[in-house]
Specification:
By secondary structure, the chain is an alpha/beta fold. The chain contains 8 helices and 7 strands.
Length: about 230
């Protein structure tokens, strides 16, 4: 009960903040992807490409602290050979992720594609059916590659102020998109982080370094066995 209350408080803060903290950025002409904060020059190891929002970009802290960098450390500690490419962009909606997917997929040719999107869709009250179509469209682009990557989708939650009908449809959109695309679904990875003051920055939305560690640990429960199977 307390966990659900904390998430609701976090989502209310998200809604109250509007889009002032994050504005969707156009796809960069020449952006350097990062591997735990280091430019990706080598392709010696299979790539895990993270297409995400400010959560992946490490808003307020930097990519070296964000959950994809923590994920890289967990991968290394587990003796797995994947290298994580962090392509997080603050303020991005699922439509923005879809628009830049071709460029990213062509550049990185990932073995695994992790899509962390939807937070800003919920913030803006975008139709969940539209978000679901964007997710499916992005995954379809990945599946059209000569060597398609394994797909992972991070589920998000919508602000409760938008009503039970919307939040229910929003939550279902991730389950349906994952099932329709054959993607592995990671449940809300900010559980236990969202709504906890000590684990979020002053804006009440974006995780602290410790918050990113806990979020990555939540995701790792699904990702570790998934990546071991791929190995």
């Amino acid at each position: 009960m307390q966990a659900k209350y904390s998430v609701s408080v976090w989502l209310v803060s998200l809604l109250a903040a509007g889009c002032s903290a994050e504005r969707e950025a156009p796809p960069p002409a020449r952006a350097e992807s990062t591997v735990a904060g280091v430019p990706s020059a080598s392709r010696a190891r299979p790539t895990v490409l993270v297409i995400g929002t400010s959560l992946a970009a490490g808003y307020g802290l930097g990519p070296d602290v964000a959950w994809p960098a923590v994920l890289q450390r967990k991968i290394d500690s587990a003796g797995l050979t994947f290298r994580v490419i962090n392509a997080g962009v603050s303020g991005e909606t699922s439509a923005g992720a879809l628009r830049r997917a071709d460029w990213l997929l062509e550049r990185e040719r990932p073995a695994v594609l992790i899509l962390e999107t939807g937070g800003n869709d919920g913030l803006r009250g975008i139709d969940p059916d539209s978000m679901r179509a964007n997710i499916r469209g992005l995954f379809a682009k990945a599946q059209a590659l000569a060597t398609p990557p394994a797909l992972v989708l991070f589920a998000m939650e919508a602000p409760p102020n938008l009503g039970d009908a919307y939040t229910g449809r929003f939550r279902a959109a991730f389950t349906e998109a994952a099932r329709e695309s054959g993607a592995t679904l990671v449940p809300f990875f900010l559980a236990g982080v969202a709504g906890v003051d000590s684990l979020n920055l002053q804006d009440g939305i974006h995780p602290t370094a410790r918050g990113h560690e806990l979020a990555a640990t939540n995701a790792w429960r699904v990702l570790e066995p998934f990546l071991r199977r791929l190995r």
